[in-house]
Amino acid sequence: MGAGPSFMQALAQAQAGQTGIVRVPSAAERDEVARVQGMQVRTNAVGLAANLYAGKDCTDQRLIATAKVIEMFILGEPPGTT
Question: What stretches of the chain show up as alpha helix (H) in DSSP?
Answer without folding.
Answer: 5-15, 27-52, 60-75
